[in-house]
Amino acid sequence: MTDRLPRRSGGGDDGPDETPVERLLREAMSARAAQIGAHDLRPAAPPNRRVRRLRPVYLAAVPLFALAAALAFGVLGFRGDTVARQQDPGPAATVTVTETPSPVPTPTPTPEPSPTAAPTADASPSADADEEAGPGDRPTGGATGAPLGGQVPQSTSGGTPPVTSTSSSSAPPQTAAVPYTFRGVKFKVPPGWRVSPPKPTDDRVCVLSPGAPTSAQPGWSPDSCEPYGVSVVVYDSASEVEGATWPTTADLGSTSGWGHQPTCPIWGRPYIPTGPYASVGAPVRTKDIVAGRAIDKTQWQVSCTSADTFTAQLWGLSADQVFIVANGLKPEYQAGLVSLLDTLNVSGHPAPVQVPHQNDVSVSVEGIGVGQQVPNDGSAVPVTVTYKNTSQTDYAAMVPFVYAEPYPGAPAAGAGSAVRGTVERQDGAGAWQTYDIGITKPARDGSNGIVALAPGQSVTLKLRLKLTPQDGAGVMPVTFTAMVVPQQGPGSVVGTRTIPVRVVVK
Which of 166, 245, 271, 485 is the most exposed place for a label (fewest CB within 10 A)? Predict the structure, then answer.
């Protein structure tokens, strides 16, 4: 490498002569520049974790090296013009320099890659990746396909999948209630619970609690739902109702209605007892409102032995022939059982026992609704009832009859209980007639009122309901019926509507 426009040593028109020191300095710089190749011009190495302080930059020190060489020549007495006249200067003098801190800025360092940072074949996704992915999109970790966390969920119903019906072992736990339909009856499976799928011919389905074991206990029927779950029993036809052994509507009123050929469902060790056992104390009967209907509940405390006792619970929607059974269920799962009951919907399940002509007359009620509070202080609750003949049958003598069904809060009346309140009815603009609301059958003499309803016709009646302080708190079903009452033989219902209300003490 040579200078394109070197200064002439003899002066002339091109400018003054360059001094020997200047020529020496120029040649030293040219020689040093000739040592720089393409490899010296590559991009700077990426920064690393270890910061090397004050790395020297040799190119910045070249002028200083050349100046030092020129001073050395001058001090030793070399003749500069002799050296300057050489057209091909020899190799530049080698100068050994000790690295010293330099004020010139150095490239910003970055950490060196860690030897453990390289991904492996079985590396699990990071926590950030888990947060970005949705619950249903999270991948399984490692070559084994285990979910994040390293534990594979085990089936807790002897290999039966839960109602969520997911085939991936990495599926997230069920955190919300899941809708389920059985024979037209809808309900929601509580979080953590699961359904044991029934057979096509089964009239009941088992909803297992979170604490249910993975398999049946030794000596225990694998089809048994007790004591680890709740049975939802739905009868679809009159033949099923007639052939049912348990549960039935009669079991709700029985002192031993917790089961037919009862077993001893003790949590963790259920067994079939060898000796006799029975209820402890009287059963507790209550009414509540489920699916817009009054539902009956009976609860028993049962003793298998002196050490083994369990609680049996049975709910029944008699008109719909739908029952809920929970025997031996742990108290900690009672909230889940109640949530299942609260979501029960039987509107898609037709009543299996059809009464002829029961739907000939539609009954609509205004003034009270399901669950409405009715005081027991004798104050009047106004109600309007409309009966409409929707059939082609001419009902010339129909009895519009209203009564309150017995409920646990009503005072005892012999073997049962009866409501002591009254119902007042006004026909047209006439006077108010008072009737005993606790009587469930109309009189045959027509004293309860008779109206004629031809096909398509309707009639509206005004009523006032009054309860007494003897009528205690509880759920009381009020039934509005349209009946045909002959002089002989049983009457027939041609229209009905039942509204459960809540009696409150004032």
Answer: 245
